[in-house]
Amino acid sequence: MEHLTAELIAQVERAAPKDAGFEETIAALAGSLWRAVREPASGQQLLIELTMLALRTPSLDAARQGHYRGVIEVTARLVTEAAERTGYRLVQPAETVARFFVAGFDGLMLQVLCVPDEAAERVGLNALVSATLALAGGRLELMDVPLD
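The structure corresponding to this sequence follows.
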């Protein structure tokens, strides 16, 4: 899991534009990540399968949690770096933005594996990036959802 994730992170980090605005940077990072997911040899399906195995194997709890925390931390770091470089003011904490993006991206990856549809995937990715940017910039009104 660590090896596959490290390769993916390195690929996404290389795609970070140095002279673009915050929105363009986040879109570029998401696009790079998406291209990696769509590559048949990317190992994304294996990473999902390893995660599912870790969910069913109590002795792998620490590895699974550590892996997922790491993914969120790297995503939050990339968001923070883009905001700092561009002077963008994050309204929500970078970790909140990262967790939102990762949750949505995971859902899109599962759709690719279960019901591939490139046109729908493109709309979903565009909507996810737009919603992530709206959350980061305070343009997304958060609805309080009753849970009881």
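The two ends are 36 Å apart (CA to CA).
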